[in-house]
From TrEMBL:
Catalysis: reaction(s): ATP + protein L-histidine = ADP + protein N-phospho-L-histidine
GO biological process, one term: phosphate ion transport
GO molecular function, one term: phosphoprotein phosphatase activity
Protein name as annotated: Phosphate regulon sensor protein PhoR
Species annotation: Paraphotobacterium marinum
Pfam family, one: HATPase_c
A cellular component term, taken from the record's GO annotations: plasma membrane
Highest taxon of source: Bacteria
PANTHER family: PHOSPHATE REGULON SENSOR PROTEIN PHOR
Length: 396
């Protein structure tokens, strides 16, 4: 009886000690003897191994999440019926998912656009599909889905908006370039056809010669600008080591610009700080400021004011052309530096504009780590300006 009571007491004591040890999760193994001691040691070792595995898995999960966040694409993991398992932050942004709040939700209930639902229901993931973003309507998404386990799928979401815009710009570029070259070629072809008749050559030769000369100059200028633009876009090693005296350069341009402004009865005023020199490409820089100055004169009505300002300050220099002309509508401003883009195509052609000038300005300024800024109000005028960082300004 006493032996049985002692045994039960011993078992009960070890049981409570075991229970307490499990609940406290202490690293210290309870002291015991016999089978209990062996079990304590075995459990302790197994627990240590499990803790190590848990830490390793946690570390791998963190590395995976960190890696997935650095991907340029959205990633979504879902089950057979569209149940969300996991997604990265870019997938949240592009598809409008809130994770982990939407964990276990059916993605078809979150993204209700017909294109997306039809894509998932089709179960045909051999080819990628394109659709507008359900959140960012102006963005185009490319979805690629692949099955990696039974009933589990991985979706890659790529924002192809910029690629589509570049493709559209390329198509527009070739269409406009063809149109620009076709017009003068048609004129030349017409006069060549007329020249087949010797009786008509004498009467119209003088006018024909003038028109053909103008069209050839226009074609020459257009080809030259296209070559310049191509070089600016593809050549990152343009020589920027010229010592450019901007005051001298603007004094030279002013003489030419004043002559044009007078024909339009415009008031042209140059305000240039003294002794401003920059390191760059002189031909390229001259093209930039000439384009901006002559655009303000050519593309505005008679009698307006045009101010050209060149100011030096601690952060660098600022060049600006300000006019009191007709102004530009806001929806045109972002596209002004696109190739062949014109606010008014008929008026631009009448003034001899090719639509490439501001594109050349844009790509030229990229070499100086800056960009063209445009501000405008209808019937009040416009301001075109840029800032050249102090690292390009040469000390006196």
């Amino acid at each position: 009886m006493c032996a049985s009571l002692a045994l039960n007491s011993w078992l009960l004591y070890n049981f409570f000690m075991f229970s307490g040890w499990l609940h406290k999760k202490t690293e210290n193994v309870p002291s015991s003897i016999g089978v209990w001691e062996k079990n304590f040691i075995l459990l302790h070792r197994k627990n240590v191994r499990n803790q190590k595995r848990k830490k390793e898995l946690t570390r791998l999960i963190r590395r995976f999440k960190s890696g997935s966040e650095s991907l340029p694409d959205g990633v979504l993991v879902f089950k057979q019926r569209g149940v969300i398992v996991w997604c990265n932050s870019l997938a949240e942004e592009l598809l409008g998912i809130r994770f982990p709040a939407d964990l276990g939700q059916n993605i078809k209930q979150i993204i209700r656009t017909p294109d997306f639902i039809n894509y998932l229901n089709s179960n045909n993931f051999d080819k990628p599909v394109e659709m507008p973003s359900p959140v960012l309507r102006t963005h185009i998404l490319e979805l690629r889905t692949m099955q990696y386990n039974e009933g589990e799928f991985l979706m890659i979401i790529r924002d192809t908006t910029q690629i589509k815009q570049l493709e559209d710009m390329k198509r527009t570029f070739f269409a406009d370039a063809s149109h620009e070259l076709r017009t003068p070629m048609t004129v030349l072809k017409g006069y060549l056809e007329v020249s087949k008749n010797p009786n008509e050559i004498g009467d119209m030769w003088q006018r024909a010669h003038k028109v053909m000369s103008e069209q050839l100059i226009r074609m020459e200028s257009l080809v030259e600008q296209l070559l310049t633009l191509s070089k600016l876009e593809s050549d990152n090693d343009i020589d920027l080591n010229d010592d450019i005296n901007l005051v001298t350069m603007l004094n030279q341009i002013e003489i030419e610009a004043m002559s044009l402004a007078k024909t339009k009865k415009q008031n042209l005023d140059f305000n240039v700080d003294k002794d401003i020199r920059v390191k760059g490409n002189e031909e390229q820089f001259r093209s930039v400021v000439t384009n901006l100055i002559f655009n303000a004169i050519k593309h505005n009505p008679n009698g307006i004011d045009v101010r050209v300002n060149l100011k030096k300050f601690n952060e660098g220099i600022m060049f600006e052309v300000v006019d009191t002309g007709r102004g530009i509508e806001q929806n045109h401003i972002e596209r002004l530096t696109e190739r062949f883009y014109r606010v008014d195509k008929a008026r631009s052609r009448a003034t001899g504009g090719s639509g490439l000038g501001l594109a050349i300005v844009k790509y030229s300024l990229n070499h100086y780590d800056t960009s063209l800024k445009i501000e405008s109000k209808i019937n009040e005028g416009s301001k075109f300006y840029f800032i050249i960082d102090a690292k390009f300004v040469l000390s006196q």
